[in-house]
Amino acid sequence: MSKPKIELNNSAIRDLLRGEDVQNALSSRANSIKSKLGEGYETDIYVGKNRANASIRAESKEAKRDNKKNNTLLKAMNL
User: Fold this and answer.
1) Which uninterrupted H or E stretch holds 44?
2) Which of 16, 29, 37, 60 makes a 20 to 30 Å CA pair with 43?
3) Count of CB atoms situated within 10 Å of the CB of 30
4) Cα–Cα–Cα angle for 37, 41, 44, rounded to 5 degrees
5) Which of 62, 61, 72 has its CA nearest to residue 34?
6) What is the per-residue pLDDT across 15-74, written as a single tens digit (0 to 9) for each?
7) d(CA 21, CA 38)
8) Mean pLDDT, rounded, for 9-18
9) 3 state SS of 76
10) Which residues are CB-neighbours of 16 under 8 A, at least 6 positions away?
11) What does the pLDDT read at residue 38?
12) C-beta of residue 52 within 8 angstroms of C-beta of residue 24
């Protein structure tokens, strides 16, 4: 018995990963993480060449200091 050959539709996968549903899921996750952080952190959702992306960054001086000292972003992500 031979193995079935699976052929992926790359453009459909790309469309899925860039789609509104994925962006909404990323936004929800990013906002959930941000709610654990406090003041001074910002989120951003953007669509790249192949997929949607979310970023969370320390914007204020206090948040940057806190993140540098305590790894606040990594801890909030449960990594």
Assistant:
1) strand 41-47
2) 16
3) 20
4) 115
5) 72
6) 999 999 999 999 999 999 999 998 999 999 999 999 999 999 999 999 999 999 999 999
7) 27
8) 94
9) helix
10) 22
11) 87
12) no
Q: Yes or no: say if 45 and 30 are a contact pair by the CB < 8 Å rule.
A: yes
Alpha carbon separation from 70 to 26, 37, 43, 75 (Å, rounded): 24, 11, 19, 8
Q: What are the φ/ψ torsions at residue 35 (nearest 5 degrees)?
A: -65, -25
Contact 26, 43 (CB under 8 A): no
Query: Cα–Cα distance between 20 and 79 in angstroms, integer?
Result: 26
End-to-end CA distance of the chain: 43
- The upper half-sphere exposure of residue 31, i.e. CA atoms within 13 Å in the direction of its Cβ, equals 7
Which pair of tokens denotes residue 15? 């469309």
Q: Containing H/E element for 50?
A: none
Domain boundaries, the chain: 10-76
